[in-house]
Design a protein that fits this description.
Blueprint: H1 2-14, H2 21-25, H3 28-31, H4 33-37, H5 43-70, H6 78-99, H7 114-133
Helix pairs in contact: 1-7, 5-6, 6-7
């Protein structure tokens, strides 16, 4: 979660947009269009955005952990750790943008340009890879 939050803040900064806007935009799941339009998000939008982002990151981490468990992958297996992490993020991307209703998309795709959006998922993949190596 820390990695994706920092990525969202950083990419907004690089795009010269209000840094907290991508976090607040995640709250569109609860608050609708108001959260997407609020370039300087209210505290309630930020809290909900942080909570939803945290929940999603825990969920996708759990998916990766389930794959490691079911496939009996040890942290020392570098190739499989990397493949499972990348596969999990591909699944997350497909789910977020092609399966769930528009109301349940991450929201920051309305704020960040497509390159930054993809790079957020790359950051998440790198975080999952690192976490995969740190498993015991």
């Amino acid at each position: 979660m820390i990695a994706t939050t920092l990525a969202l803040l950083g990419f907004a900064y690089l795009e010269k947009k209000p840094m907290l806007w991508p976090i607040g935009s995640i709250a569109h799941i609860v608050y609708g269009q108001r959260a997407l339009d609020d370039k300087n998000p209210k505290p309630s939008f930020l809290l909900v955005g942080f909570f939803l982002n945290f929940s999603a990151m825990i969920g996708w981490s759990g998916v990766a952990e389930a794959f490691y468990f079911w496939l009996k992958i040890r942290p020392e297996n570098v190739l499989m750790t990397v493949l499972i992490s990348i596969s999990t993020i591909i699944l997350a991307f497909i789910t977020d943008f092609h399966i769930v209703p528009k109301r349940l998309t991450p929201g920051f795709e309305h704020v960040l340009n497509p390159t930054s959006l993809r790079l957020v998922f790359v950051v998440l993949a790198l975080a999952l890879i690192l976490a995969g190596f740190m498993r015991r």
